[in-house]
Amino acid sequence: MPTNNKNKSVLFFSPHPDDHFSAAGTIFKLKEKGYDYYEVLFANGETGGHLGKTQVDPNELRGIRSLEFEKASVLFGTKKYYKLNIPNNDIHYTRDLMFELIKIIREVRPSLAIIPHTTDYHRDHREVSEISADALLRADNSFALHLGERYRVPVILQCRGINPLLKIDMLVDISEQYSKVLDLVEIYNSQVTPRMLQYVESLPSLSGYYMRAKYAEEFEIPRNLPIIPNDVLADLA
């Protein structure tokens, strides 16, 4: 079970360009503590909505959302991102995709990985959750070693989507990072409807209530991927 706790880094598995909203405060918090940030972007969101428009051109929206993602990557200080360019609403569990994710995990060797929740409302999110969890588990297996030396990510967490988690294993205080979350909201102006803004404000506030903080983010530990004691746990406190 090779691990490398000295590699202070976070790897986020993002179905669409703005899905890092769910853990943005936590990412900013760890960046402030010296962590490198990496992201896997599965789809470009070209068939999603566009605020203020009833007819959406997929090519135009792909360009807009790609630019928003680039700006968000600058705000995060992303060290490297991996764009998989899968068509929107067409993410499926395949052998090739599994191997690609294993290769990324073994290359980055993060101390923390964050994936969507298995019960998320969006099908793409559920697909990403399933294949990412399997890739994280199999990255530590002694097969397909042409993809890199096996590696066990010590801490793996599922984040919420639009719907709150029914089971919360960890709360992270993001009160000091919340202003940066709002800066992120400003970048995604093609996507942030009044309802989305209400979501960005209300769920972190509710999570904060449970830990007597102003704002917090909630996470669940995936089944079959228990946490290995690691410095990242102290850095999330």
Main features:
single chain, 237 residues, alpha/beta, Rossmann fold
Write the CATH fold name. Rossmann fold
Number of strands: 7
CATH homologous superfamily name? LmbE-like
What composes the largest sheet?
7 strands, mixed
CATH class, named Alpha Beta
- N→C terminal distance: 26 Å
| CATH structural architecture | 3-Layer(aba) Sandwich
Query: What's the tally of helices?
Result: 7
**Structural classification:** alpha/beta
SSE order: EHEHEHEHEEHHEH
Count of distinct structural domains: 1
Using the alpha-carbon principal axes, give the shape: globular
Give a short synopsis of this structure.
This protein has 237 residues and is of the alpha/beta class. It has a single domain, classed as 3-Layer(aba) Sandwich (Rossmann fold), CATH 3.40.50. Helix content is 38%, strand content 17%.
Which secondary structure elements does this structure contain, and how are they paired or packed?
Elements lengths: L8 E6 L9 H9 L3 E8 L14 H19 L3 E7 L8 H14 L3 E5 L6 H16 L16 E5 L10 E4 L4 H10 L6 H17 L5 E5 L10 H5 L2
Parallel strand pairs: 1-2, 1-4, 2-3, 4-5
Antiparallel strand pairs: 5-7, 6-7
Helix pairs in contact: 2-5, 3-4
Characterization of the model:
The protein has 237 residues and is an alpha/beta fold. It has a single domain, classed as LmbE-like (Rossmann fold), CATH 3.40.50. Helices cover 38% and strands 17% of the residues. The protein has helices spanning 24-32, 58-76, 95-108, 123-138, 178-187, 194-210, 231-235, and strands at residues 9-14, 36-43, 80-86, 112-116, 155-159, 170-173, 216-220. Strands 3-2-1-4-5-7-6 form a seven-stranded mixed β-sheet, with helices on both faces. Helix 2 packs antiparallel against helix 5 (178-187) and helix 3 (95-108) crosses helix 4 (123-138). The relative contact order is 0.20.
